[in-house]
Amino acid sequence: MEVTTASELSELTSDASAPPAELAVEGTVRAPSEEQEKRNPLKKRKITKGKVIVAIFIILMLIYPLFRFAIMWGYINIKALYVSFTRYDLLTDSNIFAGFLQYKLLFRRLASDEYTKHTLITSALYFVVTCGISLPLSVIFSYFLFKKVPAAGVYRVIFYLPSILPVAVLALTFRYSFGSEGYVDQLLHSLGFQNLPLWWGDSTITPIMVFVYCIWAGLGLNIVLFSGAMSRVPKEILEYDQLEGVGMARELFQVMLPCIWPTFVTTFMLGMTSVLTVYLQPYFLMDSATTTPFNTCTISLYIFNNYATPAQAPYLAAFGLFCSAVFVPIVLGTRAFLNRFFRDVGY
Amino acid sequence: MRAKRIAALALCGLLAGSLCACGGGGGTLPPAGDDTPIDQVDDTDRSGWVPFEKKEFPAGTKLRIKFFNGGYGDAWIKAMETKFEQDYPNVDVILTASKQENDFTQTIATTLEGSPDDIYICHNIPYERLSVRNLVMNLDTLYNSVVYTDTKGTETTDDDTPVRFVDRIAPSSLNVVRFNGHYVAIPEIQGAGGIAYNKTLFDAQGWEIPETYEELVALCETIKNANVQTDQGVVTPFVWSGTVAYMWDSFVYDMWVQIAGIDEFNTFMKYESMDLFDSEKYPALKQAWTYWYNLVAAHPEYSNSESMALDSVGANTAFAAGQAAMMPASCWTANECASMAELFGTEIGLIPTPFVPEAKKDENGNPIRVAYDMAGKDCMVIAQKGANRQVAIEFFKWMALEENARLFPENTNGLHLAFKYDFDYLKEHETLAWAKDTVKLLSEATRFNLYSSSPLVYNAGTPLSPYPEGNMYLEACEDYGKSDPKTPDGVFASRWEKIQAEWETMCLAAGVTP
Questions:
Q1: CB–CB contacts below 8 A, A to B
Q2: Nearest to residue B311, comparing CAs of A185, A283, A336, A141?
Q3: What is the per-residue pLDDT across B131-161, written as a single tens digit (0 to 9) for each?
Q4: Residue B366 has pLDDT above 90, yes or no
Q5: Is residue A17's pLDDT more than 80?
Q6: ipTM value of the model?
Q7: Are B155 and B201 found together in one domain?
Q8: What is the number of other CB atoms lying within 10 angstroms of the CB of residue B360?
Q9: Fold designation for A112-338
Q10: Nearest chain A residue to B104, by CA
Q11: Are residues B291 and B406 in the same domain?
Q12: Is residue B3 part of a domain?
């Protein structure tokens, strides 16, 4: 019998791996019947007390995250929404309702201001870079590490090292590796490449350099996540692949990927949000410059760099909310779409 | 169903309110900044000046100062700490250094509401807002307090003349710290920029300091043709940093004000009309920018080939290492390059921005020297809730004394506090080329800065600047020689187009009637 999809494999293995019914309930407490409870009021009180303790535990555990969510997400976003419809007045240090003024200014700039347009385009390209390049690379590298290629442990350390170094150190190390004093240029010169580009001073090359850095620095974390997911895939499936003579490419794309699909979707979603969240990488690579030149500015870096006083808050709030309003439905839609695949498997 | 109706009604209300507000939101120009000139005591003859009598403080009094440890370093404040403690043995000065600008800008209001230090020193302290919230001290009393008494009398009277704190402040810094009719901060720096030059190299090659723009162009050609070889390669006329390309502002703004005159510049900074951005009516900035364009963008061979890719540290290093003869500079440049210059054995000097042919002339026919102060908004404030405000006031009066104010240039490679120095004394005693050049420039030039009291700056979401579209230095250099270059005509036409399209909305967003 030839097995073609992970779901078929899952069905095959589920029978063998599923524990017998009697084992499944072994060790659990059977719920007492009403009659038994009536007969034994002491036991009933014990159960009620247990439920209260559990409830208190859950409430205590939820208080902090809920409080944090309410402040850091709820309050801030509601306030940002309000602020975006105001203008600042220094003499009273207050925000005055101004209707759609900030949005009017924003739309005008979206239509005509080159810097604003480039900021949006650069941010959107992070989707392509993160989900289109970084994520597939992470899956492929994780798979090779999982298959225990020679020196897999060394590669694992090499891939993960950038993730444990401070971003400022890593960014500066990367920046100074290129340029006339950097080892990359010297290496390329020794290989016969002359007239090298200005890595950090060109509107076409520099954004690509920032993307390359993001890919390099971002691989480690993704590889750890995917390696963890792959290690949970049952060995029986892989042994079956081996017996059937399934090649590595086919195993990766038709067996492994569907098996780790939930992790893939989560990582894909996180990658998508980089469109709205990336700012530290270009910030450090471009010398923390307030104007962030050479098409390297992103949406959040624009907001970060331009916020100095409450006077800037209304316009920046409008800018941020507009970007979120456009992008969040895309993220949610993509998640809904991706979740339609491989529902019946997941490790 | 009912909930839906209520929600729909609420949304309609919000929309209606918003649309109504679209037509309004304006108002009259609020009386915030104050440009009224201040009469100051003539300080040309300082003989007979007697310092104020020091106050006594109880033993164990503490003065807490938090300062930004950036381009000016901390040697100057440590020197002041030592001397102040000597002069006031009962006072213990506690310094807190911070390299986080946010401590002084975004989070300072929260700090000042709690248990703050007594004094804060940094750039970009939002003192206007802090004063509105009564978080920083009203300093009118300090500004009117007597720092010196002039005992020599005058021709008309034998009475002693008080020299107040306000008389000690450099006049061009006073506009920065007055808000709503009160003094709310103390200006920190009086600086001047232009072009830093490698004096060691200039002396070795016999290159002359250019006085005019034409001489600067000729010098660049001479340096290029000299083809001077060093360990670092061929020396180019300029090196500069792409990430801080705004350092060219010192050069361009100086030429702008040379051409326009200080009065037209001050009118511009009020942003009262969009016509100020029309380069047909006000051509000076475009002319200045064109001079820069013709020298730098149109001559890539005059700049170190990596300039656009260099960050500020990279540019400073290349300059100190002798890879280029000159670099656009602000007042802190020499201090930033100090350690590297020492390492490479380079002495750095300052060339004042050379005069352009259209520069305004004085009554004797000499071009008027002006100097753009990039650090003009750095300031010091006293916390309203500070535990020892009277000691803080005493500290600033003490700082205004000439001998104490000198501690700053002595420990910062020629930077100066915003006090009126005895420049003749400094000229005599300065040893560093940069410090000497700076003192000469400060003593000759009319300083100006980009501080504006217009609501279009302090109330606006995207504050106005002379370049509302960005300063375009990089784009001009990058696009030169390509099919669609950023020429001065294109840059300034685009600026005017943007202002025409956005002026009304920008005014309304700042609460001003267009």
A1: 147
A2: A283
A3: 999 999 999 999 999 999 988 766 666 677 8
A4: yes
A5: no
A6: 0.82
A7: no
A8: 17
A9: MetI-like fold (1.10.3720)
A10: A308
A11: no
A12: no
